[in-house]
Backbone:
C-alpha cells in the first residue's frame, strides 16, 4: 500500500503544487492539507479528474485543535477533515482545511460535489460552530433549537450553560441556569494487603 500512496502523493503534488500546504503518509494513510481559498476547487478536481476519481465522500468532521498536544498547538484552531474514497483506484485520501478566522470559522461547503456531506457539515456546524458557505440548509442537527454554544469546542463547559425541565405549572418545558454543583469524584479503592498474591487466593 505504501508504494500506491507514494504514487498518489506524487500525483497530487504535481497536479496541485502550492495549493497543497502539506502532505503526510502515516499508518498507511495519506493526509493532505489545503488552504481555505483552494479547498473547493481542489475537492472538485479530486472528484472529477480521472487520475484521482474520488467518487465518494465517506466522512467529514470538525476538529478543535486548541488543546491538541496538551495545549502546545500553534496555529489556526478549527479544521474540517474529509475522508474520500476512490473506488476506481481503490485508495483513500484524507483532506484537511483550516478555517481562517478562529472567532467565526468558515469554510466552503462541498454538498454540491457530494450530497453525503449534507448532514456531516450540519453536525460540524452544530457541534463545533464551523459555518459552511454554500450549504443550502445549515442548521442544528443534534442539539435543541434553543441550545446555546457548540458542545464539542474544547472550552465548552462539561455541565453546559442551561438545563431544561418540564414545568407542570406552565405545562411546558422551560430552560433554567445549570443547578449542578461542580465536583470531582475520586473513586475510593480498598484492597487487602495480599491482593494479587497467588499464595493467598
Residues:
Amino acid at each position: 500500500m505504501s508504494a500506491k500512496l507514494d504514487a498518489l502523493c506524487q500525483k497530487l503534488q504535481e497536479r496541485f503544487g502550492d495549493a497543497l500546504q502539506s502532505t503526510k503518509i502515516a499508518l498507511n494513510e495519506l493526509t493532505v492539507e489545503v488552504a481555505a481559498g483552494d479547498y473547493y476547487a481542489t475537492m472538485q478536481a479530486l472528484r472529477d479528474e480521472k487520475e484521482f476519481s474520488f467518487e465518494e465522500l465517506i466522512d467529514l468532521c470538525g476538529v478543535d485543535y486548541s488543546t491538541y498536544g496538551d495545549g502546545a498547538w500553534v496555529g489556526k484552531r478549527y479544521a474540517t477533515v474529509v475522508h474520500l474514497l476512490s473506488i476506481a483506484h481503490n485508495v483513500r485520501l484524507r483532506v484537511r482545511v483550516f478555517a481562517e478566522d478562529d472567532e467565526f470559522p468558515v469554510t466552503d461547503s462541498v454538498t454540491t460535489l457530494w450530497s453525503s456531506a449534507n448532514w456531516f457539515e450540519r453536525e460540524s456546524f452544530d457541534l463545533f460552530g464551523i459555518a459552511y458557505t454554500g450549504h443550502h440548509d445549515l442548521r442544528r442537527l443534534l442539539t435543541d433549537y434553543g441550545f446555546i454554544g457548540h458542545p464539542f469546542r474544547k472550552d465548552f463547559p462539561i455541565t453546559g450553560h442551561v438545563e431544561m425541565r418540564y414545568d407542570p405549572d406552565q405545562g411546558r418545558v422551560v430552560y433554567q441556569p445549570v443547578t449542578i454543583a461542580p465536583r470531582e469524584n475520586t473513586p475510593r479503592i480498598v484492597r487487602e494487603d495480599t491482593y494479587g498474591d497467588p499464595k493467598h487466593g
In short: The longest helix spans residues 2-16.
